Amino acid sequence: MTMESFEVSELAQHKDRNSIWIAIHGKVYDVTKFLDEHPGGEEVLLEHGGQDATESFEDIGHSDDAREMLKDYLKGTLAGHIAEEIKPKKAPVPASSNPTFVRQEESGFGKMLIPVGIALAAVGYYAYMRYAQT
């Protein structure tokens, strides 16, 4: 199946809410019907309408589901685009079996415990000093 190829000048004509196309990784998508559904708001799509939005799309870190949804809006390819290899995200580096320092994440409650304790101690000290003078 051969997809239709669009020139950059043709892509640039589709940049308003009546017809909005974007290019991502050399593929052209008609996202007009997706404007009202876009989780980031229609403004983001309108801002990138009629142009290559690859960098912004990747910078925001779209989910696998979002990438899968692109297929529903595929219109064709961008003429003259040289496909670049999409590098997989780096896998997290496994922790050493004998770490010298392990940072333990605190829960929201744990983070609040120290400031609340200090505040209570200050109030207690104030009350003690006030009543000790009488």
What is the count of DSSP helices, taking H or I runs of 4+ residues? 5
Sheet with most strands: 5 strands, mixed
Strand content: 5-15%
Number of strands: 5
Spell out the helices and strands N to C: EHEEEHHHEH
Notes on the structure:
The protein is built from 5 helices and 5 strands, in the order βαβββαααβα. By secondary structure, it is an alpha+beta fold. The chain has a 5-stranded mixed β-sheet. A hairpin with a 2-residue loop joins strand 3 (19-24) and strand 4 (27-30). The chain is rod-shaped, with a radius of gyration of 27 Å.
Summarize the structure.
By secondary structure, the chain is of the alpha+beta class.
Notable characteristics:
134 residues; five-stranded mixed sheet; rod-shaped; 5 helices; 5 strands; single chain; alpha+beta
